[in-house]
Each structure stands twice: as C-alpha cells, then as structure tokens.
Write a structure and sequence with these properties.
The structure holds 2 protein chains of 2 kinds. By secondary structure, chain A is α/β, with parallel strands linked by helices. Chain A has helices at 80-92, 107-117, 140-143, 146-159, 175-184, 223-236, 250-259, 269-272, 276-290, and strands spanning 8-10, 13-15, 19-21, 43-45, 62-65, 68-71, 97-102, 123-129, 164-167, 189-192, 196-199, 201-202, 207-208, 214-218, 241-244, 263-266. Chain A has a single domain (8-56, 75-196, 217-299), classed as Aldolase class I (TIM Barrel, Alpha-Beta Barrel). In chain A, 31% of the residues lie in helices and 20% in strands. Chain A has an 8-stranded parallel sheet. In chain A, strands 5-6-14-11 form a 4-stranded antiparallel sheet, with no helix packed on it. Chain A has a two-stranded antiparallel ribbon with strand order 1-2. The radius of gyration of chain A is 18 Å and the shape is globular. Chain B is built from 5 helices and 16 strands. Chain B has helices spanning 73-79, 117-124, 142-146, 166-172, 186-199, and strands spanning 2-15, 18-24, 36-40, 50-53, 56-58, 63-69, 86-93, 106-112, 128-135, 150-155, 162-163, 179-183, 203-206, 222-224, 236-238, 245-247. Chain B has a 7-stranded antiparallel sheet. A 7-stranded mixed sheet of chain B has the order 11-10-9-8-12-13-16, sandwiched between helices. The chains are: A alpha/beta, B alpha/beta. The interface between A and B is large, with 39 and 32 residues. The complex binds flavin-adenine dinucleotide, flavin mononucleotide (FMN) and FE2/S2 (inorganic) cluster. Flavin-adenine dinucleotide binds at residues 36, 48, 50-53, 68-69, 71-75, 114, 117, 208-211, 244 of chain B. Flavin-adenine dinucleotide is lined by residues 36, 48, 50-53, 68-69, 71-75, 114, 117, 208-211, 244 of chain B.
C-alpha cells in the first residue's frame, strides 16, 4: 500500500500529522528538543502566556494520583515580551506549526497578548485558554458560563490576526452548550479537555497535598471523560475539534479521532516518555497501514 | 540527559529501610556531583518520576550508585529489584555543586537524614573534604564517609557523636571551612544558611520539591529566589533544571 496521508487541516492551517503537544506540558519545546526533532510534530502548543510575567502558585504544585496527576502551577509564565523575544525565534527554526496558548485574568489581558502576537511571523494559530482551574479570576471563570464563552470568543476573534482555538473546560454540566457558545462567538476551532478540578489530602500530615488545595487532574485517569466530551462536542458544532486528555499511545489518539477529533494534543504523557508524541504519530500511521486506510481523515468522527 | 532502561547490577539494604542500588547506565561519565536521576515505576498507574540523587559514579564500569530510603509505594517497589532487573531512568538531571571552584579548598559537606548520599560523589572530586552528618539514631554510609575524610557526627538521640543536629556538631567540634555544600531537610538548610552568613562563608544547598517532568518544562518544582529567574522572569527558579543546587543566599528557605 502507498504511504497513507497523515496531514489534517485546521482553520486553513495544514498539520503534517494530527499530533500536537498540550499546553503547559511541553514548555516552548526547548527541553524536549534535546530528545527529538520538533519538526516531526503536527504542531507545538506552547505554555500559556499572559501580557506580563505571572509568578504562579505556591508549592507543592503537583502530586501524583492513580493513573494521573494533579497540578496547580497557576500559569507561571514570563509574559508575552520575553516569549516573543526568546521562545518564538527558537520555535521558528523548526518545520512545525506554532500554536500560542494565551491566558489572562480579564478580557483586556487576553487582548493585549493577542494584539502583541498579531505581527509575529510564524504563529499559525492561537489557543485561548478559558479553562484553567488554577487561577482565581479569568481562566475557568470565562469557561464555565456560555455567555462569557461567547463574549470572550467574539472579542478575541475581532482582534486576532490568526485563527483562534477556544480551549474548553470539562468542569461544566453540558459541554455541548460551551462548544456551541464558542462556535457562535466565531471560534475557528475548539480544543478539549483542559484538566478536571480535583483534590488530594495527605492523610499522614492531615493537609492538602497541593498548596492551592485544588488542582487540575490530567493523565490516563481522565481519558474516558475526555473521549466522551470530544464525542459530544464534535457532534454539536461544525468547526474542528482538537481532542486531549490522557493520551499516552497511538491507540488513545485514534480513539479520540474516531470520537470526532481532527487532531490530538498529548500532555502529561510527555513527562513519562519524552518521545511519546513522535511515537504516537508513527503509531497512527502504522494503524492506517494495517487497516488499509489511505487517509487519516477517514477515521475522524467515524464512530457515530 | 537521556531516558533509558538501566540494568540493576546489585542492590542491598544497608540500614533499616535504606537501600543502595548500583545501576548500569550510559551516562555515568557525564554526571557531576549534586545531580540527580528520575526513576520510574514499572506500575503504569504511578506516572511521575522519583527523583534520587547520584551517590557515586564510576565512569570505568559505567555505573552509578543510588542510596534511598523507602518513603512510599515507588521506593518500596524499587527496593524489591535485584541484580539483572531493569528500571526506567532519566538522567543526569539538574546542576551540581560548584566543585571545580573549590577543589583545593576546605569544603564542609553537610548532610542530614536522606541528604547524605550525594556528599559521597562530592568528596570524590575534592582534595580536602570534611563531613558533618546528622542522623536520627541509626547511621548509614558512615564507613564510606570515613574513607574519604574527617567526619563529624550528630545523632538526635545522642547515641553517637554530638547529641542534636549537624549545626550542634559543627559548633561542638569547632569545624572550620572555606565553604559549605549541603543536602538535607529544610530546617537544616535554613540553619546552615544562617550559620554560613554569620561565619562569612559561602553556602550551597541542594533543594527538594515535588516534580512532574524533572527537566524544567512543567514549572511544578519551583523555589523562591532573590533575583528574577532566567526562565520565567519572576522570582521562581526550577529546582530540577536551575538547581537542585543553589547558592543559599539566592533562595528562599
Ligand atoms: C532532587 C531530589 C533528590 C532526591 N534524592 C534522594 C535520595 O538520594 N535518596 C532518597 O531516599 N530520597 C531522595 N529524594 C526524595 C525522593 O524523591 C522521594 O523520597 C521519593 O520520590 C518518594 O517516592 P515514593 O513513591 O516512595 O513515595 P510516595 O509518597 O508514594 O510518592 C508520591 C509522589 O510524591 C513524590 N515525592 C514524595 N516524597 C518526595 C520528596 N521528598 N521529594 C520529591 N518528591 C517526592 C514522588 O516522587 C511521587 O511522585 C530526592 C528528592 C529530590 C527532589
Ligand atoms: C503541568 C500542567 C500544566 C498545564 N498548563 C496549561 C496551560 O498553561 N494552558 C492550558 O491551556 N492548559 C494547560 N494544561 C492542561 C493540558 O494542556 C491538557 O489540557 C490536560 O493536561 C489534559 O491532557 P493530558 O491528560 O494529556 O495531560 C496543563 C496541564 C498540566 C499537567
Ligand atoms: S519538575 Fe517540571 S519543572 Fe521541575
């Protein structure tokens, strides 16, 4: 059989394969570039960046849970200026798409980042994080109210030069409502899921395991929830859906795609295996070959 | 920095719940004193790395020695490994002690509790190492230390050396040094920082924090710093990447 087509397209941007990194689990790629060639990825999604540096939360910020982890980093980041001067030039050296994940406490803060990125060469897409459970204002506050989702989406869309992906929170009663709100606001794509709010108590010390008390649950533990939400969201909207949550291997990625994801992001699994993303891309290809499927597009949403 | 499957050459229990493990790795010659490795559980439900300091390296045989205490499920699992078994490892990680700068100086290597192991490889690169070590009661690695230099001991119950902590031992034995390099519990590091400031000598501390990536990506393992850090331009350095060794003056303890 001839080589299957692995490319997918999101809002006019072609990804050479459907595998990208999940924001916050890959930095700006520098550390992982010591393990493999970032050009092998469909896209690199960078850590959330705000208009100014954010110090993040007190420690402990991470802890392990069964087949998962909780994090409450609190979006520590160097701010958009350092990001544009240091991280973007680094990423431009690679033949991959750069997707910048944007965070803020208010609409104005999101817009400042979006404006600053307008003329930055090589930024293919923006991913707007309206779903971080670890910052008090902004973040998830926008992501759990459909009117707020639509409003922030519209405001960002009006200013952004690049197509926008709205990153949705799973901490809602009905993900379809949020997906539709993002679509109504003009989103070019949606991505999900961000982490599920959780808590762990250290019983020996009689204290919260995380200084922030609550944190976001990620890793294989959340995968079935994520697959279900990707399935529901992709059935509710006609814009592309990027699926994530607990992906550790090609089989997981294929599951998300069959549920309706056009591309997938791999997060926590990077911590365990630095080359997991390229292994997943290769594994998807091998699956297509084995099943005699000429185009990866054929598996997207094939289970209905 | 490589991720690989290492072979366990040998493992033994050297004190109650404290294990010494010799691993064959490809990076033994690259490791410097104060660096650590991440060990991974064979149980897929335990995702995160267990950071363990490098205790000794032998470039010739391509081995590293780790000494660790059973602290939970992961280390319990590792303690069951025997010669010939395999384990996932990532290393060497972080920045070590500024050994070269103080090679020919009188360096006081201070360790408390399970912070003693990395002092061994420090001593192996120094001309005149002096140790001050604190134990609760039962000692471990003491013979290894004595082979390398002068040792001042403190035990909490007074069963050996000075009764009390390492600072008590340093004071009781009037130990003099040009610089301090240390690893151990936070209260000890805090006391050492104050002691070194008073004595007017530099002090380097090896820090500990919960880690998720171990390579500087997730920003899980930060500690407060005096100056704006290189990475995020706030006052939070990454212990796994910018540390674990810091100038005590530079970090909030
Ligand atoms: C840089 C560094 C070097 C270290 N060197 C040594 C050493 O040489 N010898 C030694 O005995 N111990 C060392 N530790 C502590 C060691 O990492 C923990 O004891 C170990 O991770 C416990 O794992 P567990 O699965 O047995 O415990 P669990 O409590 O079951 O672990 C649960 C989670 O918490 C993490 N965790 C628990 N305790 C600690 C801790 N103190 N520091 C960081 N993470 C922790 C684990 O990695 C794991 O992700 C070091 C820690 C750091 C940060
Ligand atoms: C340590 C850590 C940091 C994260 N930081 C961000 C972030 O800055 N912005 C964001 O949109 N999502 C962030 N996330 C969420 C991930 O991008 C992803 O949505 C989530 O972890 C689920 O995927 P996973 O199970 O593959 O990790 C973070 C997750 C982790 C574990
Ligand atoms: S453990 Fe991820 S930055 Fe240190």
């Amino acid at each position: 059989m001839t080589e299957p087509n692995m490319a997918v397209s999101i809002a006019g941007v072609t990804l050479k394969n459907p595998v990208m990194t999940a924001s916050g689990t890959f930095g700006s790629g520098m550390e992982y570039s010591e393990f493999f060639d970032l050009s092998k990825l469909g896209a690199v999604v960078t850590k959330g960046v705000a208009d100014v540096p954010w110090a993040g939360n007190p420690t402990p910020r991470v802890c392990e849970t069964a087949s998962g982890m909780l994090n409450a980093i609190g979006l520590q980041n160097p701010g958009i200026d350092v990001f544009c001067e240091r991280d973007l030039p680094f990423l431009r050296k690679y033949d991959t798409n750069i997707i910048v994940n944007v965070c803020g406490h208010s609409k104005e803060e999101y817009l400042r980042v979006v404006d600053r990125l307008a003329d930055e060469e090589g930024v293919a897409l923006l991913e707007i994080n309206i779903s971080c459970p670890n910052v008090k204002q902004g973040g998830i506050a926008f992501g759990t109210d459909p009117r707020a989702v639509e409003e922030i989406t519209r405001a960002v869309k009006a200013r952004a030069k690049q197509p926008i992906i709205m990153k949705l929170s799973p901490n809602v009663t009905d993900i379809k409502v949020m997906a539709k709100a993002a679509e109504a606001g003009g989103a070019d794509a949606i991505s999900l899921i961000n982490t599920l709010t959780g808590m762990k108590i250290d019983i020996e010390r009689g204290r919260f395991a995380l200084a922030n008390r609550t944190g976001g649950l990620s890793g294989p533990a959340i995968k079935p929830v994520a697959v279900r939400m990707v399935y529901e969201a992709s059935g509710a909207v006609s814009i592309p859906v990027i699926g994530m949550g607990g992906i550790t291997c090609a089989d997981d990625a294929i599951e998300f795609m069959m549920a309706g994801a056009r591309a997938v992001s791999v997060g926590t699994a990077n911590f365990r295996n630095p080359t997991v993303t390229v292994e997943i891309a290769e594994g998807i290809r091998d699956f297509l070959v084995r099943k005699n499927i000429p185009d990866v597009g054929e598996i997207i949403g094939c289970v209905r | 920095m490589v991720k690989e499957i290492a072979e366990v050459v040998y493992q033994s229990e050297i004190a109650t719940d404290i294990y010494s493990m010799l691993l064959k790795v490809t990076f033994a010659r690259d490791a410097v004193p104060g660096q650590f490795v991440s060990l991974y559980s064979a149980d897929g439900s335990r995702l995160l790395p267990r950071p363990i300091s490098i205790c000794e390296t032998d470039a010739g045989s391509g081995t590293i020695r780790l000494v660790y205490r059973i602290a939970g499920k992961g280390t319990k699992e590792f303690s069951g490994l025997e010669g010939g078994d395999r384990i996932e490892i990532l290393g060497p990680l972080g920045n070590g002690f500024p050994i070269d700068e103080y090679k020919d100086k009188r360096v006081l290597l201070v360790g408390g509790g399970i912070g003693i192991p990395p002092l061994l490889c420090c001593a192996d690169s120094l001309e005149e190492p002096v140790f001050a070590v604190g134990y609760r009661s039962e000692t471990y690695l003491l013979e290894d230390l004595k082979k390398r230099g002068e040792v001042h001991v403190a035990t909490e119950d007074g069963s050996l050396g000075t009764a009390g902590n390492v600072i008590d031992a340093i004071k009781a034995d009037s130990v003099k040094a040009d610089v301090i390099m240390s690893c151990g519990p936070m209260p000890m590091l805090r006391a050492l920082k104050a002691y070194a400031a008073e004595a007017g000598i530099p002090c380097y501390v090896s820090m500990e924090e919960r880690m998720a990536c171990g390579i500087g990506v997730c920003l899980g393992c930060v500690c407060g710093t005096e100056h704006v850090d290189e990475h995020s331009h706030v006052n939070n350095a990454r212990i796994c990447k910018d540390g674990p060794v810091f100038d005590a003056k530079e970090v909030t303890l």
